[in-house]
């Protein structure tokens, strides 16, 4: 796209005499600049992108966009002043990729827990309904062929240029719909600003990421943007925050509350899955979902309501639910010939841990054992003690261990978790995660359940300054063979 066409598309005026080269792409990271690209200078929490202008010019950028040059800094390239740099990054990326979301049906999923599971279920139901569909989620992205691919870093929602590039790639690969997990960071940092949503799904909200958002209200307000921006919302009737969302526009409600249009009744938790009576605007039927975890009933209702909004019928929804293969690392069962049940799950907030342990208790005839840690670095230290409290209250024995401790001394994290356990003595701290998993599996007898919580499908474990390759399911298999 020519620079002048790009400026016109964004309603920006260029100084007279500005050259008109082709703009081949856009980035906010100086190290990613390639010849012909535009660079957006963002003032972040740690750096000001304007300090890298010389580097950016040397790498062959043709344009800089920013909120204003700092005093005394001269631009070595044409400089476009914009009101909001992150917004400009998203708008430029969308313009360069031909605004792909406008040619797709886009379902956005937000909430504290349940985003990934709901997204995976929704894309599965859309495909069952014959709509070639793609997915962007924490557990990787999928083109309509269904193969799981990964972005290079641990991202739920990548930066806007990658989001737009991915959406354009989805279109090229034949997608007609895309399901996109929208994290609160993504909404706050404008990573999904230039996405034309069709349906927004709200899972639920509990306190998380307060290190970044400051207050729960601030966290809620970022997530609310998704509901504001979509023409139709699928809202959780059982989540107290929904009361603040219903006035924002057309919506449907799901859950177990009587006012839910998509309602589950008579929920039965079985060893291999969940059965419930579905009442919905398309009719009434018996539903089967081969997944454990009672909260997955909510995820299923949300996914069905979203897929129905894009045209899926009741038979397709029920068949699709019954054939859903689950999500890697979410309530994933690791087979054991010896009758112990080991479950790998991503629960890493006190409420999601509470739900995971609560639901596993229902189908555990023996003891419930849990292995868990709490992340270090900047990640919400206020979670540590509550995680220790929940684990020791709801499990028969808890092993406290590392979970991406980063530069925080593991002892400090474990002490906080132990403090949360209060006077209870049903816990052991084992700093090395592999050792902790082995100790838990050794303790288990047939009929017992061991929940390995917190890492789920993640492929690395961050310890001090090391990033170690990690596969929790494989760790569980090895421990079972020990
Ligand atoms: C807390 C957070 O989200 N921070 C984001 C924020 O960082 P920041 O404000 O500190 O940026 P900065 O480091 O000061 O840099 C400012 C600018 O200078 C540029 N820069 C900086 C240094 C340099 O050498 N060269 C250079 O060009 C940067 O690319 C950036 O454009 O802006 C950066 C650029 O947009 C993001 O990369 C960064 O995400 C970091 C990597 C991150 O870890 N984010 C996580 C927490 C996140 O977003 N997680 C959510 C999921 C959360 C969940 O639900 O669990 C996600 O969607 O993945
Ligand atoms: N609807 C729900 N309500 C509460 N807890 C849930 C719900 N769905 C899943 N969980 C729990 O939260 C964990 C994370 O689920 P999932 O990955 O689907 O959520 P997420 O919102 O994508 O989380 P993240 O953004 O951290 O990846 C699950 O492993 C499960 O323990």
Automatic annotation (TrEMBL):
Q: Matching SUPFAM superfamilies, A to Z?
A: MurD-like peptide ligases, catalytic domain, MurD-like peptide ligases, peptide-binding domain, MurE/MurF N-terminal domain
Question: Biological process (GO) annotations?
Answer: cell division; cell wall organization; peptidoglycan biosynthetic process; regulation of cell shape
The post-translation modification note in this UniProt entry reads: Carboxylation is probably crucial for Mg(2+) binding and, consequently, for the gamma-phosphate positioning of ATP.
Q: State the needed cofactors, names only.
A: Mg(2+)
Q: Where is the Mur ligase central domain?
A: 109-307
List residues of the Mur ligase N-terminal catalytic domain: 23-95
Q: Which InterPro entries match?
A: Mur-like_cat_sf, Mur_ligase_C, Mur_ligase_C_dom_sf, Mur_ligase_cen, Mur_ligase_N, MurE/MurF_N, UDP-N-AcMur-Glu-dNH2Pim_ligase
Q: What's a GO cellular component annotated to this UniProt protein?
A: cytoplasm
Residue ranges the record marks as coiled coil: none
N6-carboxylysine PTM positions: 223
Q: Start and end of every Mur ligase C-terminal domain?
A: 329-456
Under Enzyme Commission nomenclature, its number is 6.3.2.-
Q: Which UniProt keywords apply?
A: ATP-binding, Cell cycle, Cell division, Cell shape, Cell wall biogenesis/degradation, Cytoplasm, Ligase, Magnesium, Nucleotide-binding, Peptidoglycan synthesis
List, in alphabetical order, the Gene Ontology terms for molecular function in this entry: acid-amino acid ligase activity; ATP binding; magnesium ion binding
Q: Where in the cell is it found?
A: Cytoplasm
The UniProt annotation places ATP binding at: 111-117
> Where's it mainly located?
cytoplasm
- Pathway given in the UniProt record: Cell wall biogenesis; peptidoglycan biosynthesis
Q: Where are the transmembrane segments?
A: none
Q: Identify the residues that bind UDP-N-acetyl-alpha-D-muramoyl-L-alanyl-D-glutamate.
A: 156-157, 183, 191
- Domain of life per record: Bacteria
State its role: Catalyzes the addition of an amino acid to the nucleotide precursor UDP-N-acetylmuramoyl-L-alanyl-D-glutamate (UMAG) in the biosynthesis of bacterial cell-wall peptidoglycan.
Family, as annotated: Belongs to the MurCDEF family. MurE subfamily.
Q: What is this protein called?
A: UDP-N-acetylmuramyl-tripeptide synthetase
């Amino acid at each position: 796209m020519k620079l002048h066409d790009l400026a016109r598309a964004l309603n920006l005026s260029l100084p007279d005499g500005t050259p008109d080269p082709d703009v081949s792409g856009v980035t906010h990271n100086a190290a990613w600049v390639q010849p012909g690209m535009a660079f957006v200078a963002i003032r972040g929490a740690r750096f000001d992108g304007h300090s890298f202008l010389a580097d950016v010019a040397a790498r062959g950028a043709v344009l800089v966009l920013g909120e204003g040059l700092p005093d005394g800094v001269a631009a070595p390239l044409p400089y476009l002043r914009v009101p909001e740099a992150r917004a400009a990054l998203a708008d430029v990326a969308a313009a360069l990729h031909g605004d792909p979301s406008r040619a797709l049906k886009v379902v956005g999923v937000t909430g504290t827990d349940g985003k990934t599971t709901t997204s995976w279920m929704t894309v599965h139901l859309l495909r069952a309904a014959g709509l070639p569909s793609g997915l962007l989620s924490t557990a990787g992205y999928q083109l309509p062929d269904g193969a799981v691919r990964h972005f290079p870093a641990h991202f739920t929602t990548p930066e806007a240029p990658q989001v737009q590039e991915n959406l354009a790639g989805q279109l090229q690969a034949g997608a007609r719909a895309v399901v996109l997990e929208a994290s609160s960071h993504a909404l706050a940092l404008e990573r999904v600003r230039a996405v034309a949503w069709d349906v927004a799904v709200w899972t639920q909200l509990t306190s998380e990421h307060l290190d970044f958002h400051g207050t729960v209200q601030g966290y809620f307000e970022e997530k609310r943007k998704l509901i504001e921006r979509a023409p139709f919302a699928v809202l959780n009737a059982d989540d107290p925050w929904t009361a603040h969302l219903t006035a924002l526009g057309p919506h449907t409600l799901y859950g177990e509350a009587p006012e839910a249009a998509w309602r589950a009744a008579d929920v039965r938790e079985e060893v291999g899955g969940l059965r419930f009576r579905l009442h919905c605007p398309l009719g009434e039927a018996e539903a089967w979902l081969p997944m454990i975890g009672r909260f997955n009933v909510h995820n299923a209702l949300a996914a069905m309501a979203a897929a129905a909004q894009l045209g899926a019928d009741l038979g397709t929804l029920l068949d699709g639910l019954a054939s859903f293969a689950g999500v890697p690392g979410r309530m994933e069962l690791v087979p054991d010939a010896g009758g112990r049940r080991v479950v790998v799950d991503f629960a890493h907030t006190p409420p999601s841990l509470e739900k995971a342990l609560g639901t596993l208790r229902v189908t555990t005839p023996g003891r419930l054992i849990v292995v868990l840690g709490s992340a270090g670095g900047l990640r919400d230290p206020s979670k540590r003690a509550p995680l220790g409290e929940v684990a020791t209250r709801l499990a028969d024995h808890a092993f406290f261990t590392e979970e991406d401790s980063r530069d925080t001394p593991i002892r400090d994290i474990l002490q906080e978790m132990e403090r949360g356990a209060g006077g209870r003595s049903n816990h052991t701290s084992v700093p090395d995660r592999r050792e902790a998993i082995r100790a838990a599996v050794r303790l288990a007898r047939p009929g017992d359940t061991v929940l390995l919580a917190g890492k789920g499908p993640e492929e690395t474990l961050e310890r001090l300054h090391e990033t170690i390759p990690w596969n929790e399911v494989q760790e569980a298999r090895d421990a079972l063979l020990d």
